[in-house]
Structure formats: structure tokens, C-alpha cells
Amino acid sequence: MTRGFYIGRFQPYHNGHHSVVETISEEVDELVLGIGSAGDSHTRHDPFTAGERIMMITKSLVDSDLVTYAVPIEDLDRNSVWVSHVQSMSPEFDVAYSNNPLVIQLFKEAGVEVRQSPMFNRDVLEGTEVRDRMVEGGDWEKLVPEPVTEVIEESGGIERIQRVSQTDSNGV
Ligand SMILES: Nc1ncnc2c1ncn2[C@@H]1O[C@H](COP(=O)(O)OP(=O)(O)OP(=O)(O)O)[C@@H](O)[C@H]1O
Ligand SMILES: NC(=O)c1ccc[n+]([C@@H]2O[C@H](COP(=O)(O)O)[C@@H](O)[C@H]2O)c1
């Protein structure tokens, strides 16, 4: 039995993340999805709460054969103990998946096996691109699994990200 760990901010969970999970599902029996920066929400960079991100992931993976667990992981000021913090919050795992250089470095230093996944359609499948489209009224829905659009609609997510992206100046 192999259990993997895939960490991301998932702001929001998009089709690139979903393809990564599909790829990982061929290598592991169970997967923990670590919801990074769990305490952050209501900003342009991190609009959605940990709870909303749990809903996006749970509903998107409901038909998957893979056993998955979504675990919120808050940020720490101290990178040197971050892996212990992750391990203290997560079901035990055998291998970590990330393409983030800092995350890879921290896991390797802690003796955890790290695997990288290929990038899928990265020119558009990037959280920043999805959020830009949400703010600018562009077509973001096709970049995310359908259940994610429902969660965002239910939480008033588009109005939220548009409002928090405004400045408080009146243009002068
Ligand atoms: N299109 C993609 N294909 C493969 N991996 C991806 C893709 N998009 C993100 N990832 C990887 O998934 C992990 C989590 O990504 P993250 O939640 O930061 O999303 P992001 O799309 O990189 O977002 P942002 O633009 O908000 O930083 C990272 O390791 C990232 O490299
Ligand atoms: N010191 C820390 O709290 C620390 C260190 C490394 C990664 N992280 C988090 O892990 C996640 C990594 O995800 P991304 O690959 O999506 O950036 C982010 O939420 C990031 O803040 C936190």
C-alpha cells in the first residue's frame, strides 16, 4: 500500500491539478491533498477559504477510484520545521508530489522521497490565469472541473475576488 501527498494552494483547484491527481493515481493507492496556506482567504492571490477548497477537491474527486483525504496545512514562519508540521497534520505518506522548488528542497532535506509531475497545458492551467479571468470577467469556467464552478457560485466567489481586487482609492 502506497500513500502519496500532493501539496498546493489550490486557489482554485483547476484542470492542471486534476490531471496531476489522475497521473498520481496510477502510482499510489491513496492520496493526501494538502491544502497549503490554509489560513489565507479573501485576497486576490488567495480568494477561497480552506473549507471552500476542501469542497472543490472532494466534489471533483467524488467519482475517482482513488482514496483521497484533503488536509488543511497552515503556513509557518519557519521553513526549517515545515515538513514536521505537515507530517503532524497529515495521514502518514510514503512519497510527496510537488513541482515547487522550495517544497522539493524541504522534503528532500527531511529524507522524504519527492516526485515531480509533468506540467499540463501550463500556459492557461495556472491559478494566476484562472484568477485573472475571474477578476476581468473572462472565461474561467472551462479551466476548472465542473463541481468547482458550483462551489464558487455557491460561495459568491466571483463577486468576492472582484471586490477584494479593487483598491480603496477613488482614482485620484
Ligand atoms: N497545469 C499544471 N500542470 C501540472 N502541475 C501543475 C499545474 N498547475 C499547477 N501545478 C502544480 O501543482 C502544485 C500546486 O499548484 P498551485 O496550487 O500553486 O497552483 P498554480 O496553478 O501553480 O497556482 P498559482 O498561479 O496560484 O501559484 C504545484 O506543484 C504546481 O507546480
Ligand atoms: N514555511 C511554510 O509555511 C511553507 C514552506 C513551504 C511551502 N509552504 C506552502 O506549501 C504550499 C505549496 O504550494 P504551491 O506549490 O502551490 O506553492 C503553499 O501553500 C506554501 O505556502 C509553506
Observed structural traits:
172 residues; alpha/beta; Rossmann fold; 5 strands; binds adenosine-5'-triphosphate; binds beta-nicotinamide ribose monophosphate
Total of helices: 7
Under CATH, the topology can be stated as: Rossmann fold
Cα-atom radius of gyration = 16 Å
Unique bound compounds: adenosine-5'-triphosphate, beta-nicotinamide ribose monophosphate
Q: Which word captures the global form?
A: globular
Helix content: 25-40%
Neighbour order of strands in the largest sheet: 3-2-1-4-5
Unreliable spans: none
Family: Belongs to the archaeal NMN adenylyltransferase family.
Organism: Haladaptatus litoreus
InterPro entries: Cyt_trans-like (IPR004821), NMN_Atrans_arc (IPR006418), Rossmann-like_a/b/a_fold (IPR014729)
EC number: 2.7.7.1
List the topology elements.
Elements: E1 3-8, H1 15-25, E2 30-35, H2 50-60, E3 67-72, H3 82-89, E4 95-97, H4 101-109, E5 113-115, H5 127-136, H6 146-154, H7 157-164
Parallel strand pairs: 1-2, 1-4, 2-3, 4-5
Helix pairs in contact: 2-6
The structure holds adenosine-5'-triphosphate and beta-nicotinamide ribose monophosphate (NMN).
